[in-house]
Amino acid sequence: MSRIESVFQRLQGEQRRALIPFITAGDPAPALTVPLMHALVAGGADIIELGVPFSDPMADGPTIQRASERALAAGMSLRGVFDCVTQFRAADDATPVVLMGYANPIEAMGKPEFVRRALEAGVDGVLVVDYPPEECTDFSSALREAGLDPVFLLAPTSSEQRFSEVAAAGSGYIYYVSLKGVTGSAVLDFDEVARRIPQIRARVGMPVGVGFGIRDASSARRIGEVADAVVIGSRIIEEIERSPREQVVGNVTAFVRTIREALDQIGREAP
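User: That's the sequence. What structure does it adopt?
Assistant: Structure tokens below.
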């Protein structure tokens, strides 16, 4: 059983929702990435999504695009991301880390080398935005053979066929994109999310995390009432952007803790 599966199994037994915060590796500076990863855990993260910076992140809104630009300008690379995970693992061998990014850096490194380095660093899962399941059968199989979870996206427009493809190729959890748009969008249709999640969960047989458009404790709690996990990224990047360098770690911990407390309130009220 992978670390990701173990986390969801434990949380299910506790009637709690997983909190999956996202940061971009290298933002606001490479030296702060590992401290920020620990800050997310201190705030109550169950799984960390660590963004691999890329020059043309098509699914990301302006906030995460700026984070990628800052990280790349500071010299962060895919190899640097693996170094960050290795350093994080020296002090934390329990919290799953999922790399989230795009195909180009993986193709440049080579898929076999990427899988080898990911396993060696202590990565638990990989979500590649522009690797749809039908086009990366070999890659997802290689990840699973190495004990890593290939995580896939589903969207409001996903077809029944896509549900089946994701169920066959993926493991760990499903990332449901709650909006027809990019990260950081502000309008969430909670009723539509509540309608779709049971359908997805029944078809794919995996926990479902919901991201895009979740910005505060209130929206996280409403999503947490129907989803297995809440993914929050742009709002954390905004906290990083607006915080003085010496306060960024503490401010991120404090913000993430507000989301954790909101999700745990659901657990306390569950029958």
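Residues 3-264 form a domain with the TIM Barrel fold (CATH 3.20.20.70).
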